[in-house]
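Journal club prep, shared notes

We agreed each person brings one worked example of a sequence with its structure written out as tokens. Mine is Copper amine oxidase N-terminal domain-containing protein. I'm keeping it raw so we can talk through how to read the token line rather than staring at a rendered picture. Sequence first:
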Amino acid sequence: MKKAGLFALIWICFFPSLWTLDVSADELIRPPQWCSTEDYIQIEGSKAYQGACWEELQAMRNAAVEGEAVSTQDALQLVEGYDGGLSFELGLIAFQSACNAQDAGQTSWESHLQEAEEHFRTVAEGEPAGEAQRLAWLWYARCGLLSEDPDGAAFQEGMARLAAYPDFQARTAVVCASMDGRVPADKLELLDAPVILLDGQPLVLSRDSWPEVVENRTMLPIRSLAESIGCWVEWDGGAQTVTIRRAGDVLTFTMGSDTALLGGLELPLETAPYVRDSRTFLPARAFLETMEQSVEWVQGPNVISVTENRALVGESVAIEDWVLALAPFNDDEYLPDWDFSVLGGGPRSAEYAQFCRDFMSFDQTLATRRASVINSCQNAYKNCLNYLAREKEEKEELSVYFRANIIENMGQACLLAQVAYGAGYFTYSEVLYYCQDLVELFRTSFQSWADVQEAYLYSASLFKEDGYIIIGGEWIGDELVGGIRLNTYEFRSEKLANAIEARPDIYRDTLFEEEFVRIEAPLKNLSLPFDTFTTLISGDKVPIFQAPDGETSVAVERMDDTQVLRIYVVNATSQATMVHSYLECLESHGFSLNEEVSSIKYEDIMEVGGYEVSADMAARGMNYLMEKPSIIAGSRICVRILAPFPLDDTTEGIEVRIYWTE
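Then the structure, token by token:
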């Protein structure tokens, strides 16, 4: 025993540095004096706690305790590259330095606070989700609460991020001892500020745009959120109405009314919309659920989470994986900000919606763009069928060439549908619906992603040395000016590599073997949005079809004093859905279906018109007669719908006749 004790004494005397190291290791877990143990973390693997770096941090801590305002920017050089532990420690020091500078009346206190925000945000975005990330967002929110920003944008974002963590309470968690007496009175309101999460990301609102709770109902200041999910918002001050358009939906609210209109259909509201301080407030659930969004209140009434309601398509959500996986297989121009892991290519926001619209030529109407994308998807499907048919007829060595064209057609259609979603031209369910034929054809034509990638890169590999494309150029006349010259093979390979890295889970060969569940046409799938036509005689307003493309004009022909004729080119596969939707729209305008005359034989209709109709067209023929009282006494308005209506040898349409009877 004596020998053991003597050995221990010799060890301590001759190796004091090792004893010092143990003391330093014990100090590592201690937070600075202004930080509680609960708000501090030692990030594993950080070099901040080693040697000269830790000594420098200790010195900076001590200076902050003594009341100095310490600059932390140069201290980032203490270690090479990103280090979460160093950034977290510097954020704490910068936070206390801001408090010290404020106490000393120094104008630099705000710059110290900005340093702290930058350090904590670096940790929050650089660390994997966990305690370090949570604490970084907590201190980031504290910085935002002390800053001079009246709307507290940093605070709102920090709070929104923290809302994902369970049992978080703003008042008890955000205001720490160091902040006592420092938060301005008007900033205390931010502690109860509601937060909107759009797809998990905070939608930061100015203070005059915060949601309000009226009679236990959340009322939203509509424009910011509506535009972020791809809507157009139109305000009519005279009529006191706000009209919201997205894809095929037209939703109209009247201030003070407990009823909204969706394409002419009445929707009851539990709380009437209103205007306050030049802001229009609408009932949150009525607006969002009508736009196919899912609404969830997180952590009580202060955090509203808004996401796409994917449940509307049932078990068919797997189609989304296919659409994401196919999109990179296209030859479209380079999209540097495109995210292959997210449907639509990026986080939903007003800015991103505009980016997608610019990409699709925003100078055209919503109806035109929708019809264009629908036609592109259907034409891509037809092209792929033709390529597959030709592949069987041609020589074997041409097989890869045809398959490359199939893949590019499918990839282009899936990319375009996603851009339409990002722009607000398509709903989520419409993306899946209009791409599912392509997906089903694709998964039965290939067996593995390796085969797909080989075929896609085939044509580019033929020009591996000198084949190139121009990215970002501008066409001036017939000449492409500017841009970046890229090797075609390298460009395609890099694009695929980025996509696979973003979503390795969907590029699995088992996806080709899994059950494929189709979806029905979206319930609110209006191929053509409705407009209102004022009748020539009575002045009544009647819903009409709108031309689906820029080349087809709406034809109005006076047949006599009591009748007009309107003709529209439509896609044959969408006729039943469109006519059914139009009948519902007419019923919402007070028309009733006249059963006795609603089933005239198609052949009789064509005989009256003098047209020769093929057998398949006759099988799809429909006729409906709707009528309602006119505002002219003794008259009735009648709308007769005949479909399909042959316009020429290659196209079909819808004939709508509006007339009056005594």
